[in-house]
Design brief:
By secondary structure, the protein is α+β, with helices and mostly antiparallel strands. The chain contains four helices and three strands. The chain has one domain: Alpha-Beta Plaits. It is about 40% helix and about 15% strand. Strands 2-1-3 form a three-stranded mixed sheet, with helices on both faces. A hairpin with a 2-residue loop joins strand 1 and strand 2. It is globular.
């Protein structure tokens, strides 16, 4: 994870992309913000990278302002202490999360980026 984070930090800094990456054992959630062509290039690289499996874009939408502007690539290891995502939520993200779930997932990552480590993502229902 540290190698991935270092690579992302360097690459994102060079092209003005910001974002946040959360991982919890085998589940990853990531937000990328920037010019569409820069984000598309980074996303294409992620899809080609052999370290990643089952990569899916949940949503692609313009934003009025960046939520993660202070992070070239913020990182949170959610696997510590049993993880922040309930097992059923992780399984559901892997199976069927889509654009309807993206706003709640982005809010979850934003809370983490702001230091709200006690956050729980849709503990009942949701994603």
């Amino acid at each position: 994870m540290n190698a991935i984070a270092r690579t992302a930090l360097e690459r994102n800094s060079q092209c003005g992309v910001t974002g946040f990456l959360y991982y919890d054992d085998d589940t990853f959630l990531q937000v990328l913000e920037g010019m569409p062509e820069d984000v598309d290039e980074i996303y294409a690289g992620i899809r080609r990278d052999g370290r990643h499996e089952n990569v899916r874009m949940l949503d692609e939408a313009p934003a009025e302002k960046r939520m993660f502007g202070g992070w070239a690539m913020g990182l949170h290891d959610g696997s510590e202490g049993g993880g922040l995502l309930p097992r059923v939520v992780r399984a559901n993200i892997a199976r069927s999360a889509g654009s309807r779930d993206a706003p709640a997932l982005v809010r979850f990552l934003n809370d983490l980026s702001l230091g709200r480590h006690d956050v729980r993502l849709m503990a009942a229902g949701g994603v």
